[in-house]
Specification:
By secondary structure, the protein is α+β, with helices and mostly antiparallel strands. The protein is built from 3 helices and 5 strands, in the order βββββααα. It has one domain. Strands 1, 2, 3, 4 and 5 form a 5-stranded mixed beta sheet that branches. Bound molecules: zinc ion. Zinc ion binds next to loops.
Length: about 90
Protein backbone atom coordinates (compact mmCIF):
# COMPACT_ATOMS: atom_id res chain seq x y z
CA UNK A 1 0.00 0.00 0.00
CA UNK A 2 1.44 3.34 -1.01
CA UNK A 3 0.37 6.68 0.45
CA UNK A 4 -1.91 8.53 -1.94
CA UNK A 5 -0.28 11.18 -4.09
CA UNK A 6 -1.84 14.59 -4.51
CA UNK A 7 -3.13 13.82 -7.98
CA UNK A 8 -4.79 10.62 -6.83
CA UNK A 9 -6.73 12.57 -4.24
CA UNK A 10 -8.29 15.00 -6.70
CA UNK A 11 -11.65 13.15 -7.06
CA UNK A 12 -12.14 13.19 -3.31
CA UNK A 13 -11.44 16.86 -2.68
CA UNK A 14 -14.18 19.10 -1.39
CA UNK A 15 -14.77 22.09 0.83
CA UNK A 16 -16.61 21.89 4.14
CA UNK A 17 -19.94 23.62 3.63
CA UNK A 18 -19.98 25.07 7.13
CA UNK A 19 -16.39 26.22 7.72
CA UNK A 20 -14.93 26.15 4.21
CA UNK A 21 -11.94 24.05 5.21
CA UNK A 22 -10.38 21.83 2.57
CA UNK A 23 -11.49 18.27 3.14
CA UNK A 24 -11.34 14.87 1.50
CA UNK A 25 -14.31 12.53 1.37
CA UNK A 26 -13.15 9.15 2.58
CA UNK A 27 -15.03 5.93 3.19
CA UNK A 28 -14.56 3.99 6.39
CA UNK A 29 -14.18 0.23 6.49
CA UNK A 30 -17.80 0.17 7.61
CA UNK A 31 -18.75 1.89 4.35
CA UNK A 32 -19.68 5.23 5.87
CA UNK A 33 -18.63 8.47 4.23
CA UNK A 34 -16.35 10.53 6.43
CA UNK A 35 -14.90 14.01 5.84
CA UNK A 36 -11.19 14.18 6.62
CA UNK A 37 -9.03 17.28 6.78
CA UNK A 38 -7.08 17.55 3.53
CA UNK A 39 -3.87 18.52 5.28
CA UNK A 40 -2.04 15.92 7.35
CA UNK A 41 -1.87 16.66 11.07
CA UNK A 42 0.90 15.92 13.54
CA UNK A 43 -1.71 14.49 15.90
CA UNK A 44 -3.65 12.72 13.13
CA UNK A 45 -5.02 9.21 13.59
CA UNK A 46 -6.61 8.54 10.21
CA UNK A 47 -4.68 6.68 7.54
CA UNK A 48 -5.92 7.34 4.00
CA UNK A 49 -5.40 4.77 1.26
CA UNK A 50 -6.69 4.96 -2.29
CA UNK A 51 -8.24 1.61 -3.21
CA UNK A 52 -9.63 1.63 -6.71
CA UNK A 53 -12.33 4.30 -6.89
CA UNK A 54 -12.46 4.71 -3.12
CA UNK A 55 -10.46 6.67 -0.62
CA UNK A 56 -10.49 4.37 2.38
CA UNK A 57 -10.02 5.83 5.84
CA UNK A 58 -8.60 3.61 8.56
CA UNK A 59 -8.91 5.06 12.04
CA UNK A 60 -5.84 3.99 13.99
CA UNK A 61 -5.49 3.30 17.67
CA UNK A 62 -3.14 5.64 19.50
CA UNK A 63 -0.46 2.93 19.45
CA UNK A 64 -0.82 2.37 15.72
CA UNK A 65 -0.78 6.13 15.11
CA UNK A 66 2.45 6.46 17.09
CA UNK A 67 4.08 3.71 15.02
CA UNK A 68 2.89 5.26 11.77
CA UNK A 69 4.28 8.65 12.76
CA UNK A 70 7.60 7.00 13.61
CA UNK A 71 7.66 5.67 10.04
CA UNK A 72 6.79 9.18 8.78
CA UNK A 73 3.45 8.06 7.40
CA UNK A 74 1.21 11.06 6.92
CA UNK A 75 -1.87 10.86 9.08
CA UNK A 76 -4.96 13.01 8.95
CA UNK A 77 -7.66 14.08 11.35
CA UNK A 78 -11.34 13.50 10.86
CA UNK A 79 -12.84 16.85 9.98
CA UNK A 80 -15.31 16.29 12.84
CA UNK A 81 -12.38 16.79 15.20
CA UNK A 82 -11.58 20.30 14.03
CA UNK A 83 -14.69 21.68 12.33
CA UNK A 84 -16.07 24.59 14.36
CA UNK A 85 -19.52 23.58 13.14
CA UNK A 86 -19.19 19.85 13.75
CA UNK A 87 -22.71 19.66 15.12
CA UNK A 88 -23.98 20.20 11.61
CA UNK A 89 -22.28 17.02 10.48
CA UNK A 90 -23.21 14.76 13.33
CA UNK A 91 -26.57 13.31 13.96
CA UNK A 92 -25.44 11.12 16.81
CA UNK A 93 -23.65 12.17 19.96
CA UNK A 94 -21.10 9.96 21.59
ZN1 LIG B 1 -16.07 22.23 8.71
Amino acid sequence: MTPPAGVALAPFRDTCKSCRARILWATTREGERMPVNADPASNGNVLLVVQGALLVAAVLTSGQARMSRARRTRLHLAHFATCPNANHHRRRTR
